[in-house]
Amino acid sequence: MSNRKLITASVSKFKEALRSSDRDSNGATLSLGQRQHRSRIDHGPPSSLWTSQITVSAPLEHDARDAIIAATKALGDNGESSLSLHTSSVNAEWVAAKTDPKARVKDTPKDRYEALMGDVTKQGTIILVHGGAFFTNGLGTSRPTAAKLAKETGYRVLVLDYRLAPQSAFPSQILDLFILYLSLLSPPPGSYHRPIPASSIVIAAESAGACISLSFLQVLLQIQQQNQQIRFHGRTVDIRNPAGILMVSCVGEQSLALPSWTTNKEYDIFRDQAPFLQPEFPADEIWPSDPPRADVYCDASMLPHPLVSPSLCENWHGAPPMWFAVGQERLADSSMLIAQTAARQGVCVMWNQYEAMPHCWPLFLPKLPHSQHVLRKWGQACRAMIEGGKLVTKGSWISLEDLGSIDVDVRNLTRLTVDEASTMIKGRAEGLSPYIGMRKGISRL
To answer: pTM for the whole thing?
Structure first.
């Protein structure tokens, strides 16, 4: 069977499985809360991994929160005055590969962390930010990706378990990532780890997690431009960029308004419209939100904001190296705009686009050679960023049939401009109606 037929069959099979997972045993459509609950079921780590779950306590200072609010105001005027943002404790999990799968220690987070550090072979830290449309997934679903990155790099991986929408709307997830990042630079009392320099940290993310990570990077750039001081658990922290940010299937906008949403439909796994915005979708205790809104992550008025849709960010000057792995997917235009804008401004951008690959193919279709190929490149890029490898702006189109690479110009990935994309996203946002719950007859109209 040719690679093209294999991919087509694999994607079709996965689409069927995806549709089936949206229904219960009686065939009824699962509500948003039910889907979220299913995605959070954690069966525990395999014997091949060390894991240690931690909770970073919320700081008494509000500097991190205030910096995000200030960045939101500085970058747009899309109703940020209505933001409700509070600082919370943040959950996360350290992950590293065991050298001996049979090794055992006392079942305490501290003992497991010390054992984990004993098996880490290189000094580097990866923060992993998972995807899931902002409302699903957690530590259990993230662990396989964390394990692969740990094995590819020899580093320890810290998986962020950010607050989920719709209960916690934008920009709560960005704040959670900021708190976790600060805890690495300046560990609060009781932390197991010592301070980690920013140059030894990279952020790896996929799908919605990439959106959160890019928005967080914009906050860091704003802090540096404004020379803001950030206090965290009684200390002033020197805010520097991580060594790099690495993204698979980045979600660079939420409105589904850009041309690739239509042109790349045949390759991807997404429905044409989000099911949880349709009038027949079942309501539950978390959706519709209170007050109702037209997007799980944020109010529709915020969709054109650059921190919600990083593809609309016009300034990436001073950003650390960026690495992209993108399929021929429906959201590809948003990634192209980010990479192209950053590269034109002198940021080191490594672009890898895989022919005919759907959204998040390395996670959903891990046995494909194309998935194994990108995971190796992901790990190699992590090491190059932290260990001082040679990094140059480079673009590649990777063939479906033989994984051969053709050079592409990262500075000219798309003819679409940020202004044109902004107009498209604003138009789509203005046409959205809040989800008010399943309509029965005319009772909810």
So the answer is: 0.96
